[in-house]
Amino acid sequence: MSSYRSPIYPAPRHDDLLVIYRENGSLKADYFDSEGHVIRYAVSAPEEHVVVFVSDPIPREPRYRLTPRAGGNGALVGSFEIAAPDSPGTFKPYLSWTAARR
Q1: Pairing state of beta strands 38-47 and 50-55?
Q2: What's the pTM?
C-alpha cells in the first residue's frame, strides 16, 4: 500500500458488502459495491475450506465466480473469474489475491 497522497485528487475509496443468506434450503449471496455493482450468487462448498459463489446466468450479461479458500498459515486465498455472455460456462481469471491477518 502506498502512502503517497495526491495534493489534487482525494484518495480513492471502494466499499464492498456481501450478504450471505439461506433461501428455500439453498445458500445465496448478494454483493453490492460503492460503484453500483450488484451481483447475485448461488453459494456452494464443494470441499472443506473452499466456498464458491457463482452468479446466476442472465441473458447478454457476463457471469462471475468468486472462490475464497483457506490457505496456509491462516491466509485467505481468493480468485475472481468472469465468463463472457456468449460463453456463460467458460470462466476466465480476472484477479486473484492472498490476505493474511496482521
Answers
A1: antiparallel
A2: 0.82
